[in-house]
Amino acid sequence: MKDVMFNTSGVCASKIFFQLDEEGKIHNLQFNGGCNGNLKAIGKLCEGQDAKEISSILKGNTCGFKKTSCADQLAKAIEANI
Prior knowledge:
This protein has helices at residues 36-46, 51-58, 70-81, and strands at 2-7, 15-20, 26-32. It is of the alpha+beta class and 82 residues long. The protein has a three-stranded antiparallel beta sheet with strand order 1-2-3.
């Protein structure tokens, strides 16, 4: 398993932590800060899923007036580590 820690930019969550297994699947996704309930839900939905697929789904998602979101930052974290 590869441990990933990603410093976010432009969102309420300050860091994203997750693991990538040998098959490119996401495990133990956690956000530091942000909307607690929503980000826990994203973690549950992503558990065991293909990282590339998750990235393609979440990339470009925005939050309010921001040009990014925690989900978009997760896509960037994945892209930087696969």
